[in-house]
Amino acid sequence: MTRHLAFDRLHNFRDLGGYRTEDGRTVRWGRLYRSDSLAKLTGGPDRERFMALGIRTVIDLRYPWEIEARGRVPEELGTEYHNLSIEHRPYDQAALGPETDTARFLAERYAEVAEDGVKEIRQVLEVIAADSAPLVFHCASGKDRTGIVAALVLDLLGVPAETVVADFALTGLATERLVADWRGANGGREPRWPGYGQAPPELMRLFLGELAARHGSVRGYVREALGLGPEFGALLRERLLDG
User: Fold this and answer.
1) Cα(65)–Cα(77) distance, rounded to whole angstroms?
2) What pLDDT is recorded for position 131?
3) Is residue 236 a contact partner of residue 153, using CB atoms and an 8 Å limit?
4) Is the pTM of this model over 0.85?
């Protein structure tokens, strides 16, 4: 099976299947995907590739104003669509100064999202746990907001923390193309921040550590902040694991 799915305009579309859990089970292939913005599905070949996956549900994690400005997954593709904006404090990554530490700065922003967006994050997880797969969730670059959701889901499924970190860091393979997209949308200029589009492993380690410091573990966060108990994790594993 292929983790990275090739599209002409999507740069960070990945299958979350195949990861082994601590109890020896495996995340099912072809059930759960993560991606950069599906508003870029404008060409025929990319649409055909997307439709061949049989995706029934799209979760768009962006702000409504982002969707207004840049579009959404084409409605004619017939997917069930949820706009659940988990971030509540917008900021411009490209405009950050070169002195800004990528891992530490973004880990702090992720922790803010985890606390500010509890209502929407719970809704995202409930949609994923419902019988709505194959499903894809995405934000703009498929890195930050998407990375937060992927980390929560994989942890709840029992995937080891270092595998969660490694999955997050795979966005680094798309960084060059994501930066090229930004240049194209901004008259050829370079982002001021050298960390734009980067996904260092330490970033996710810091974020997971922050959740553990505040709530004991990722599952503690899901239980205490989101109000989802062990039975929810059991349902998620039933939906998405083999073995």
Assistant:
1) 22
2) 80
3) yes
4) yes
Give the residue from 220, 59, 79 showing the smallest Cα distance to 139: 59
Contact 40, 62 (CB under 8 A): no
Residue 218 contacts residue 211 (beta carbons within 8 Å): yes
Q: In which residue ranges of the chain is pLDDT below 70? A: none
200, two tokens: 């260092």
Question: For residue 174, what pLDDT is reported?
Answer: 97
Instruction: Identify the residue whose tokens are 């942890």.
Output: 155
Which CB contacts under 8 angstroms, 24+ apart, belong to 214-221?
Answer: 214/111, 218/151, 218/152, 218/155, 218/156, 219/155, 219/156, 221/114, 221/152
Copy the structure tokens of residue 171: 């966005």
Q: Which residues contact 61 (CB under 8 A, 6 or more apart)?
A: 84, 85, 86, 87, 124, 137, 138, 139, 145, 146, 149
